Each structure stands twice: as C-alpha cells, then as structure tokens.
C-alpha cells in the first residue's frame, strides 16, 4: 500500500473502499448524534468524492462545493426568513425561481459548478416553501459535514493524479522507443508501428486531462506541464513523419539513419521512462560529452530522414531537461 505504482494499478479498488468507508462514517456521525436530514451528508460526500479519485480533483471539487453550499444556504435561509415573517407563499416561489435563474446564468462559464451547487443547495434548504428555518440550518450543516468527511478520506491513501501522469508519461516514452526501433523494418511490421503510434496518441489525450490536477498537487505551473506535453507531441508527430517517410521512400532502419545515434536515443527514452516509473532521478542525468557528440549531425548532404531524426533527438533532449528540472516535485511517494 506504500508503493505508488501499486496504488496506481489498484486505484479503482482503493477508491471504492475509501468511498464505502466514507459513507459508513457519514451514517455513523449523523445517526449517532440523531441529526435530522442526515442523508444529505452522505449525498454531499458522494457528490464530492465518488466520481473523483485524484487528490487534486477532490480538493478542487470540495472547495467549489463548499462555496456553492454556503451561497445557496445563505440565500435559502433568507428566503425562509421572509416566508416566516410574511407568510406569502407565491413570493417564496418567485424568489426561489429568480435565485435559481441567476445561478443558471452564472452556471454557463467559469465557476459554473459553484453556481450549479448554489442553486441545488438553495432548493434543498428551501424545499417548496414548506421548510422552516431549523430544517434549513440542519440541511446546511449536513452538507458541510459530508464535504468534511470527503476531504478526510481523500487524505487516506491519497490517489494522486501525479501518479497517473508519471506512469502514463513513462508508458508513452517507452512506446516512443519501440516505435523508433521499428522504423525501417519490413513492411510486415507496419501494423505494429501503427499500433504503437495509435497508443501514443491515446496516451497524449489522457495526459492532457490530468494536467490541471497535477499542477495543483505538486505546485508546478500548468505552463511547464504544457511544455512537456508539447515536447511529447512533437516527438510523436516526428515519429509519424519518419514512419510515413519510410513508407514513401523506403528509408533505412533507425540504426542506419545518418547523423543520429539511434541506440543512444532509445536508451535516453527508456532511461526517462524508468526515471518516471521508479523515481530514479539519476537516470535523467545529462548524457556524457561522447554521447552528445554521437547525437549531432555528421557532415555530409542532409536527407529528409536525417533531418527528422536529428530533430527528434533534439526534442528528446529538451524533454529530458524539462523532466529533470521539476523532478523534486513529481517524484512523490
């Protein structure tokens, strides 16, 4: 359970167990103290944590739900107060509808989830005008308790988005190494090359969806993660061009590409993959001068293949430097 990679592999089981225990604690707290409307604590917990397994996502969702709950609860309690004083039910309906309309206006765009939760909480607190002030206060308290329990369990064996980002990026780099090694092989291997490239594009999409949560968890600006994503995208695009060039021109194998140390490129890719997989940052160390010289273009007439391969090598080196620069942040246990 202390191994990040094993937690990543069994994330669904851990998440399911965590949610189940959270529901039990929510029921125990609200039933044990005899709080009315205790089911709203459990509902709130499920909304915050059930559909989100990553620590960064849960913190963000809990903060948004807390703000939405407070706004909706205050508005709802004010509507209940006017209903208690004036006893004018049509006015209560009108105020509820107006408040929900305002929330709907802000629900489309930035901060939309807060506005949506404010409207839902308002209706929970007010009901259809038949709730009293005490009921509204109890429902508000139960929702806040559910958020607190969700946050508590998000810290129990946390499933960081950083784990998913690290291991999927490691997998993408290894796929790059395999795709590069298959360049120039017999036509029968074209299906295998296409398989590797298709998997790389899938991983690229998955990595992008993780970046906002990773940025919050390890306190790295999204722009720096975007740069890493851009370098990986360039590498994948270059591999696709090299693959297409091979098909059109009958290019030689990766080992025979002029001006580029193909073996050193594959070793660098695999080294970065293992650094991400096992947290061995030493594998990201700067290559030796002899290795760098091997990657440089040799004198002679450049070809399409050599230019693409040299650009691929340069981008791999750029990616290695970027990963090394933020290694202390992503190398979490």
Can you describe this structure in just a few lines?
The chain has 333 residues and is mainly α. Helix content is 77%, strand content 0%.
Helix content: over 70%
Mean pLDDT: 81
Portion of residues in beta strands equals under 5%
If you compute it from the alpha carbons, what radius of gyration comes out, rounded to the nearest whole angstrom?
27 Å
Unreliable spans:
248-253, 255-260
Q: How many beta-strand runs?
A: 0
Number of domains: 2
Q: How many separate helices?
A: 14
Q: Globular, elongated, flat, extended or rod-shaped: what is the shape?
A: elongated
Major sheet attributes: none
What structural class do the secondary elements suggest? mainly alpha
Please give the CATH architecture of the largest domain: Up-down Bundle
CATH class of the largest domain: Mainly Alpha
- Describe the oligomeric state of these chains in a short phrase: single chain
The ordered H/E elements are: HHHHHHHHHHHHHH
Alpha-carbon distance between the termini? 11 Å
CATH fold name of the largest domain: Methane Monooxygenase Hydroxylase, Chain G, domain 1
């Amino acid at each position: 359970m202390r191994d990040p990679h094993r937690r990543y592999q069994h994330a669904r089981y851990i998440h399911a167990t965590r949610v189940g225990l959270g529901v039990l604690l929510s029921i125990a707290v609200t039933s044990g103290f005899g709080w009315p409307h205790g089911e709203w604590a459990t509902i709130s917990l499920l909304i915050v944590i059930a559909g989100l397994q990553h620590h960064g996502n849960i913190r963000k969702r809990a903060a948004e739900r807390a703000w939405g709950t407070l706004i909706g609860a205050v508005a709802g309690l004010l509507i209940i107060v006017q209903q208690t004083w004036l006893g004018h039910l049509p006015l209560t309906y009108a105020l509820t509808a107006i408040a929900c309309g305002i929330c709907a206006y802000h629900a489309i765009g930035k901060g939309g989830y807060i506005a949506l939760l404010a409207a839902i909480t308002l209706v929970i607190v007010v009901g259809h005008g038949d709730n009293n002030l005490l009921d509204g206060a109890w429902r508000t308290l139960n929702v806040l308790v559910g958020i607190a329990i969700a946050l508590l369990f998000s810290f129990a064996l946390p499933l960081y988005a950083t784990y998913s980002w690290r291991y999927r990026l490691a997998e993408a780099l290894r796929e790059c190494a395999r795709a590069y090694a298959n360049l120039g092989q017999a036509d029968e291997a074209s299906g295998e090359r296409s398989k590797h490239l298709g998997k790389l594009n899938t991983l690229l999409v998955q990595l992008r969806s993780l970046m906002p949560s990773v940025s919050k968890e390890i306190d790295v600006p999204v722009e720096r993660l975007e740069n890493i994503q851009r370098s990986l995208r360039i590498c994948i695009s270059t591999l696709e061009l090299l693959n297409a060039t091979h098909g059109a021109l009958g290019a030689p194998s990766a080992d025979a590409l002029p001006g580029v140390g193909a073996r050193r490129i594959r070793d660098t890719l695999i080294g970065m993959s293992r650094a991400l997989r096992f947290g061995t940052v030493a594998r990201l160390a700067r290559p030796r001068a002899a290795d760098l010289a091997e990657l440089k273009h040799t004198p002679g007439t450049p070809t399409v293949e050599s230019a693409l391969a040299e650009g691929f090598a340069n981008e791999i080196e750029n990616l290695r430097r970027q990963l090394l620069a933020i290694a202390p942040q992503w190398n979490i246990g």
